[in-house]
TrEMBL record:
PANTHER family xref list: HTH-TYPE TRANSCRIPTIONAL REPRESSOR NEMR, TRANSCRIPTIONAL REGULATORY PROTEIN
UniProt protein name: TetR/AcrR family transcriptional regulator
Organism: Microbacterium schleiferi
GO molecular function, one term: DNA binding
DNA-binding region(s), residue ranges: 34-53
Chain ranges of the HTH tetR-type domain: 11-71
Length: 209
């Protein structure tokens, strides 16, 4: 029983670390989010924090997983279980991208880790592969192949293009904060995924929430 209780406490502490790390990175930026700063935020030493994660890279990878979890819960981003259809999915996607402009530290973390994770031994390598595959699968399910609004590209090409544009816009925005990531992506999706006659107004309303 004591062992089970210790395990539960460990899981709870790990969750606390991830939640606090999200807050620190979002508010203080990537450069301010050292292991030391995150450890202080949860009342641990650096060694104590790394007891729950094998490395700084693993910690940051799990922070990104936690961010994805929050985005799905708060913005309804391409939820597999609801199968929202093209209009709602497009609006949800745009809302997430718009929100990213408010958390530059997390955008920078994602972009930096994505480059580092190209090495197959990096702790974030599998995360980015899985995230990309899930992202494309859900976009294809929710946006492609609509009878009344067929996309202008094959689904497998469309999903790759949207992923590439979304990731690329984040890099452009980090270099030039005047770039409107959400508006640019929304305009592109309007061209690549034509909506039915009543859908544009609905998408515009949902995207403005």
């Amino acid at each position: 029983m004591a062992r089970r209780g210790s395990y539960a406490k460990g899981v709870a502490k790990r969750e606390e670390i991830l939640e606090r790390a999200l807050e620190v990175i979002a508010t203080e930026g990537y450069d301010g989010a050292s292991v030391k700063r995150i450890a202080e935020a949860v009342g641990l030493s650096q060694a104590g924090l790394l007891h729950y994660f094998d490395s700084k890279e693993e910690l940051f990878t799990e922070v990104l997983r936690k961010r994805d979890e929050h985005d799905r819960a708060h913005f309804g981003l391409l939820r597999e279980e609801t199968d929202p259809g093209p209009v709602h999915a497009r609006a949800s996607f745009v809302r997430v991208v718009r929100h990213n402009a408010d958390v530059p530290g997390l955008v920078e973390l994602f972009s930096r880790l994505a480059v580092e994770a190209a090495h197959p031994d990096h702790p974030a390598h599998e995360y980015f592969l899985e995230r990309g595959e899930n992202f494309r699968t859900l976009i294809e399910r929710n946006l492609a192949g609509q009878d009344d609004a067929a996309p202008v590209l094959p689904p497998e090409v469309l999903t790759r293009v949207l992923q590439a544009v979304s990731d690329g816009l984040q890099l452009q925005w980090l270099l030039d904060p005047t770039v409107d990531m959400a508006a640019t992506l929304d305009h592109l999706m309007a061209v690549l995924i034509p909506a039915s006659e009543s859908a544009p107004d609905q998408a515009q309303r949902e995207g403005a929430v």
